[in-house]
Amino acid sequence: MRSEFEEKLQASGFTELTPIQKAVYEPLKSGASIDALAPTGTGKTLAFTWPLLENVAADDGEQILVLAPSQELAMQTTHVMREWASLLGFKVLSLTGGANIKNQLDRLKKHPEILVGTPGRVVELLNNGKLKLGRLRSFVLDEADELLKDDTAKQVDVIWDYIDDPDMQVALFGATEVDTTVAAGLFDREFERIDQRDVPMPTQIQHEFWLTASDQRNKRLRQLASQKKMQAMVFFNTTKQLKMTANFLAHEHIGMATLVRGDSSSTRERAMRSFKNGDAKFLLTTDVGARGLDVPDLPIVINFDLPRDGETYTHRSGRTGRMGKAGLVITFGNDHDARDLKRMVAVDIEVVKGRPRLLDGEKQTSRKSNTRSARPATKATAPKQKQVQASSEIDDAPIEKVRKQKTAKAKPTETTMSREDRFKKEKKAKRKHKKDKGRPKKKA
């Protein structure tokens, strides 16, 4: 590894590379075409950044092209690669849709060594003759399984037609396996498979399923928002439901941001910045936000809607607990949804009935790791839930109020008065205000 990289790693407190970073270093540096697989949150961006940058020549035009499936992931990858490329004096340019194309064209004239883009914008620039790839040496597909699907795969095919170099290094990266026949047919080569998905990495992600009626899910978010240090990415299956929940939270004056496909690049960038800065408690998004996004120390991921499949659940969950840090994944739904989810994924999920234990920001970080993932939750092992209400209605009281209700003795107020006594009191009040018709009032 370059001495500049080693010095920065030491200054940053890195003690050891992750399994995927170790496994791909030499193959990428030697120019091999690889198909690399590793769990989410294991540092795949740095895994291809370090070795590829070592082969770049300064002021020799565009030599690395990295494709990402979303604007957010492309911008994130740009920031990471720029941080390390600047140590060697290299330039990195982001080519994403929704951004100002004139600024991108002006910066292209400076011939940056590294390009990071989304397929649509790269195709646009190629077709208009504004982008030349004659000096390209390495072509990376980040989240390759997503890029090689449907219309996006057609755009990748167009880009490859402009390259079409048998000596080009092609690197596929992701957490989900790519259809090898599609990749081999498109790029006309065999890939060296480097699979690090089964290599154990420390994990402290806990999975819970909160039984919640459909019409109570917004209130559940309001309940969570009342807690200190609460921050979560909230995933929806449809933009329609996302906007309905956004309107509810806005009416409740709860800080939140939305990340949806179709918004301008600047709007989506502001949403991410607001969430990362802590100004928003919730980032509401569809599965456009499930791929590769890195929010440092994100404590919670919430599935407002049940993911459509196990792969989607895996990618959503990967936004928390990154690089071995603590995280919690909460899914809302009914009994039927809970059964479906358990069939989808191979992780232990605790089903929480009644009103779930409120999550205290300070206590959450100190909870024992892997206590639920190590074994299935049973009646003997699952924490007991004190059911305050017999119905499924959500108590939206703040956490401080809930504690007081549990500890304070009940006072003889209207809420604790028996039904019969309350009716007697109301009847007496009516008689008190009844007009006197000359007959003496009966004693209560």
Word description of this protein:
With 444 residues, this protein is an alpha/beta fold. It folds into two domains: 3-195, Rossmann fold (3-Layer(aba) Sandwich); 204-377, 3-Layer(aba) Sandwich (Rossmann fold), CATH 3.40.50.300. Helix content is 38%, strand content 15%. The chain is built from 17 helices and 14 strands. It has helices spanning 3-12, 19-29, 44-53, 71-85, 101-108, 119-127, 144-147, 150-163, 180-187, 217-225, 239-251, 265-276, 310-317, 335-344, 361-364, 399-407, 419-433, and strands at residues 34-37, 64-67, 92-95, 114-117, 138-142, 169-174, 192-195, 204-211, 232-235, 256-259, 282-285, 300-303, 326-333, 350-352. The strands form two sheets. It has a seven-stranded parallel β-sheet, with helices on both faces. A seven-stranded parallel β-sheet has the order 10-11-9-12-13-8-14, with helices on both faces. Helix 3 (44-53) packs across helix 4. The relative contact order is 0.11. Mean pLDDT is 80; it is low at 361-415. One of its GO terms (molecular function) is nucleic acid binding. Residues 25-195 form the Helicase ATP-binding domain. This is ATP-dependent RNA helicase. Residues 358-444 are annotated as: Disordered. InterPro entries: DEAD/DEAH_box_helicase_dom, DEAD/DEAH_RhlB, DEAD_box_RNA_helicase, Helicase_ATP-bd, Helicase_C-like, P-loop_NTPase, RNA-helicase_DEAD-box_CS.
